[in-house]
Specification:
It is a single chain. Helix content is 35%, strand content 23%. It is of the alpha/beta class. It has two domains: 120 residues, Rossmann fold (3-Layer(aba) Sandwich), CATH 3.40.50; 60 residues, no CATH class. The strands form two sheets. A five-stranded parallel sheet has the order 2-1-3-4-5, sandwiched between helices. It has a five-stranded antiparallel sheet with strand order 9-8-7-6-10, with helices on one face. Helix 3 links the parallel strand 3 and strand 4. The longest helix has 14 residues.
Length: 196
């Protein structure tokens, strides 16, 4: 996979520096900042492909930052991996609900972070977001369409936004269903990605 620009937002200087150095060694372009204000400046000055975001920052909660990223056109589709010491189920659920693409609990292995970065990037590649020229495989049932390759769900032709985890669950259920009401059909229509 080609290199990408990763922004690390964490107030722990030692962890931020460690992640930045390791990511650079692994072929990524990484930059670290300590808070939401510095993150806003970095986003204004640099192209960012992915954000590693701490949940507990001194100036603004990571959940609020993620929510704001999803509301802005410019950052709406930038993948976010939350890395935090808060590992309770409710914390993870809230993280996904506000738009995180993945959630990693501290302490974590740097290798695991690299693997998660690669998975999130793979799921956010342009061809997976419906811009490829080839036909897409779409699962349909009545007025519901689910495109597992582009992460798109439509009900009655209208796109529905699902969190990534919910999309994965629904996609697995659709694939597992042997019911004749679900069938794969070729479609060459243009599409728009689900906000994640």
């Amino acid at each position: 996979m080609e290199s990408c620009n990763i922004l690390i937002v964490d107030d722990d200087l030692r962890l931020r520096d460690l992640l930045e150095r390791y990511l650079v060694q692994q072929g990524f372009r990484a930059r670290g900042v300590a808070n939401a204000a510095a993150m806003r400046r970095a986003l204004a000055e640099h192209h960012v492909d992915l954000i590693v975001l701490d949940l507990m920052l001194p100036d603004l909660a990571g959940t609020e930052i993620c929510r704001k990223l999803r509301e802005q056109e410019r950052t709406r589709d930038v993948p976010v991996i939350m890395c935090t010491a808060k590992g309770e189920e409710i914390d993870r659920v809230v993280g996904f609900e506000v738009g995180a693409d993945d959630y990693l609990v501290k302490p974590f292995s740097v290798r695991e972070l690299i693997l998660r970065l690669e998975v999130v990037r793979r799921h956010n590649q342009p061809t997976r977001r419906g811009t490829s020229k080839g036909p897409e495989r779409v699962l349909r049932s009545g007025t519901i369409e689910l495109d597992p390759d582009a992460f798109i769900v439509r009900v009655g032709g209208k796109e529905v936004t699902l969190a990534l985890l919910e999309f994965r669950i629904r996609s697995r259920r659709c694939r597992a269903s042997a019911s004749s009401r679900w069938r794969a059909v070729a479609s060459t229509r243009p599409s728009i990605a689900v906000s994640m």
